Amino acid sequence: MLHISDLNYEDLKQYIKKEIELDEKKTSMRVNQIWKFYYQKGFSDYNLFSNLPAELRNKLYNLLSIKRPLIKKKQISKDGTIKWLLELEDKNLVETVYIPSDTHSTLCISSQVGCTLNCKFCHTGVQPLVKNLSSNEIINQIMVAKDELDDWGEQKKINNIVYMGMGEPFYNYENIKKSVQILKDENGLNFSNKKITISTSGISPNIKKAGDEIGTYLALSLHASNDEIRNSIMPINKKYNIQDIINHCNEYAKKNNEKIFIEYVLLKDVNDSEQCAKELSKIMSKFPSKLNLIQFNPWPGVKYLPSTEEQASKFMEIIKNNGHIVTLRKSRGDDILGACGQLKTESERERRVI
Ligand code: SAH
Ligand code: SF4
User: Fold this and answer.
1) Whose CA is nearest to atom 17 of ligand 1?
2) In angstroms, what is the span from residue 221 Cα to ligand 1's centroid?
3) How does DSSP classify residue 218?
4) Closest residue to atom 9 of ligand 1, CA basis
5) For residue range 310-333, what is the model confidence (pLDDT) as tens digits?
6) Catalytic residue list
């Protein structure tokens, strides 16, 4: 059955017009009413849509699902981070993480079950791609988190949405685009461009495209200062190398007028030398950027170690002395495997039985 969040505002209008045969004016009114009760009040039962006539509620019930996924497991870290394991209608499992802080709070959502890309330092990369999430499955992660936090109404307990969970958003481009449309729509979840960040491992053709069509903050998982190191830890670099990514990030920044966040996980004796910091400074000069250094979060079976604090400080100093903005991101939720790069579920692609 089609789900309401597989349709953006305009899609839903066309759908209602066609299926329920309302005139243009009435259609707009009804879509506004449906979106208000669904995305702003958070109702997931048509019986509660008291703004609609019963007949229409019945029709919608048979046409459009508004069901949430099941929470299979909920873990709360000692630092307040919450991780939910969600079971989708097709029984696949996906993780979503809420990261509160004193000033704001962030929800980290997944774009795929598993990932095709196999970056050597990332737990998700160990789980082969099972599937792309639909726009509905992406939005539903936010709906569940809002239910759980009782985040309906005027106040916003979730301030930022980051596409930094499982999977590569730009390998699920159309569904990501649709979900962002629903997120940004003021009749929808009503987040501004500046409250949404999409993180990519550097799928260059879609970086440029997203600049034209999606327009959120962009984070680039660079993690290396030259192609040799990047090839060895992120195989995707053999397809889209650093120069290629720089060119496309430039296009994105021109469109978007904002600095791009470079994500760089510090791996001991792999990418944390002073030489690397110098090379990275040069890359940073090539497009408007700021650097997020990330502490490496270990997971069962990984062969890398985090850089020492001393080495991380040296690295940071070099970047700063070259005139760039740099912050060090501390791990959050690592005791529940909820930190960057630690997400993974048990879902496997069904094997074909012959
Ligand atoms: N696939 C996208 C979105 C995932 S974002 C991307 O790679 O950008 C998850 C972020 O955490 C990425 O920047 C990723 O490189 C980083 N990461 C992966 N494994 C990590 C680990 N073990 N420790 C810290 N960060 C990690
Ligand atoms: Fe996939 Fe991103 Fe993990 Fe690489 S870092 S394996 S692209 S989720």
Assistant:
1) 341
2) 7
3) E
4) 164
5) 999 999 999 999 999 999 988 899
6) 95, 340
CATH classification number, 70-336, choose in 3.40.50.300, 2.40.50.140, 1.10.10.10, 3.20.20.70: 3.20.20.70
- Report residue 270 as tokens: 């792999």
Q: Structure pTM?
A: 0.96
What DSSP string describes 11-51? Answer: HHHHHHHHHH---HHHHHHHHHHHHIIIIIS---SGGG-TT
- Give the Cα separation of 315 and 101 in Å (integer): 26
Q: Confirm if 144 and 69 have CB atoms less than 8 A apart.
A: yes
CA distances from 322 to 242, 282, 317 (A): 20, 9, 9
Confidence band of 129 (pLDDT split at 50, 70, 90) = confident
Phi, psi (rounded to 5 degrees) for 295: -70, 135
Q: What is the pLDDT of residues 47-102, one digit of tens each?
A: 999 999 999 999 999 999 999 999 999 999 999 999 999 999 999 999 999 999 99
Report the 10 Å Cβ neighbour count for 351: 6
| The ligand 1 atom nearest the CA atom of 296 | 23
pLDDT bucket at 24, cuts 50 / 70 / 90: confident
Closest listed ligand to the CA of 236: 2
Q: Which residues contact 18 (CB under 8 A, 6 or more apart)?
A: none
Q: Give the pLDDT score at 351.
A: 56
Nearest CA to ligand 1 atom 15: 221
Mutation probe of ligand 1 site: the residue of 265, 291, 297 with most atoms within 8 A of C-beta: 265
The three-class DSSP label of residue 163 is strand
CATH class of 4-63: mainly alpha
Give the start-to-end residue ranges of the domains of the chain.
Answer: 4-63, 70-336
Q: Which ligand is nearest to the CA of 341?
A: 1
